[in-house]
Write a structure and sequence with these properties.
3 helices, mainly alpha, 158 residues, two-stranded antiparallel sheet, 84% helix
């Protein structure tokens, strides 16, 4: 997760936790200006997280492209080897078996590489989703607490 977002959320959480208890009700008094500044920092940091996700997607596409290219090369090599073996009549059966093995190996390699890339990307997205949801939950809770504080009648001065 973007370190700036994480730091701003930590500061916001610290401000809320360290706020003085209000005399009436269960709320706390917090520095609204500081909280709003921290929320703005989080908003500014989110485009960075989105850019990071784009980079991850580009990396996924690159990995999938490489896997496909390697699989294609293996398939072509398998075809070439099969063609050479078929041309020799006494090795026809051996050529078919070897070609099938190579094709199976290429398909397995492609499938494993593709699956591994998808799993890695899914893990990254899951982490990003967790942090973004957590951040949103924290911001929403802070906003609700602030709204609650704003709706309380002013306390008489003594």
């Amino acid at each position: 997760m973007n370190e700036m977002i994480d730091a701003a959320l930590s500061k916001l959480e610290e401000e809320i936790r360290s706020g003085k208890k209000a005399m009436f009700g269960n709320g706390r008094t917090v520095d609204a200006g500081l909280c709003l500044d921290l929320i703005q920092q989080v908003r500014e940091g989110l485009p960075g997280s989105i850019a990071e996700a784009r980079v991850i997607l580009q990396e996924r596409d690159r990995l999938l492209g490489e896997a496909q290219q390697q699989a294609n090369m293996l398939m072509e090599r398998a075809r070439q080897q099969a063609s050479q073996l078929v041309s020799q009549s006494n090795l026809l059966q051996q050529a078919q078996t070897e070609a099938a093995r190579i094709v199976e190996q290429a398909n397995r390699y492609r499938n494993e590489t593709t699956q591994a890339a998808y799993q890695e990307i899914a893990g990254v997205f899951q982490s990003a989703e967790y942090y973004l949801r957590n951040s949103l939950d924290n911001v929403t809770a802070s906003r609700q607490e602030l709204i609650g504080l704003m709706q309380q009648p002013p306390k008489p001065q003594q």
